[in-house]
Amino acid sequence: MNAQELIDELKSKDIILKFDGTHLIWTPPVEIVPEKQVEELVRQHYDEIIERIGIRPAQWFKGKPNRLFQGDCLKVMDMIPTGFVDLIVTDPPYGLEFMGKDWDKVVPSIEVWKECFRVLKPGGFAFIVSSPRQDVLSKMIFNIQDAGFKTDYTSLYWTYATGFPKAQNIGKAVDKKFGAEREVVEERKQHDIRNNGYGTKKTEFIEKILGDPVTPEAKKLEGSYAGFQPKPAVEVILVVMKPLIEKGYTDQALANGKGITWLDDCRIPY
Fold first, then answer.
1. Is the pLDDT at 174 greater than 80, yes or no?
2. What's this model's pTM, rounded to 2 decimal places?
C-alpha cells in the first residue's frame, strides 16, 4: 500500500484524516494497516501526504512568510497546518494565581501542549518560561511530556536582580500575636511598582523600620521566616523538542534542519 492508497482507503470509510508531523491519525480509529507500516509510509512520503491531505504550508501562507496573528492561541493554532512551525517561544501562565488573576490559576493543560506539538515541525524546539516554584514547575513539565514532547534537555535560567522576599517574618508575627508593638526606629519613602497584568502602576508609601523584638518568644525566633521563600531571582526556561522522525539527529538536520541548536556564537570567551 502506498501513501495515496492509504489516504483513499481512509476517505472511503468517512474517516477524518489528520497528520501530527509523525503519524497519520484517523478518527474514529480503524485498524487498516499495522501502525509500524503507517509510520514507514509517513517517512517515505512526508511531503506528499501533507500535500494530498490539503495542508501544504506554502499554499496556506500564500507567499507571505512573516505574518502576525492576534487572538486566542488555540483558535489561531487551529488555522496553522500540522508540522508547519519552526520554533515555539512562549511565556504561558505559571499556575501561581498571580495577584488573584483567573488566567493564572492553573498551568496549561495537556490538550494545549498537544496542539503546540501538532503545529511544530519534527525536531522543532519549544522554549517555555516557567516559575521555579517546584509544585507548578513539575506540573508544567509533566503536562508537556504527556503531550508528546521530549523533555530530557537542560533548562535555561533567566536571572534578575529585581523583586524582594515575600516570606512572613516569624519574629515580627510572634510579637504581633502577643499584642506587643515594636518601636519604629526609622521611616523611609519607598516606591511600590506593581504590574497587574495589563499595565504598571507606581505609588509612593512610607516604610516603617521596626526595632528589636519585644517578647521572649519573638527573640528566640527572630531572623526566621515562614517556609522557604528566598528572594525571587530566576525564571526557568524549559527546553523541549518534538521527537525526530528520521533515524537520528544528523538525518533530521539534513531532512528539515531541525533537531539541532547553534551554540558556537553563544559560547563564553576564554
1. yes
2. 0.67
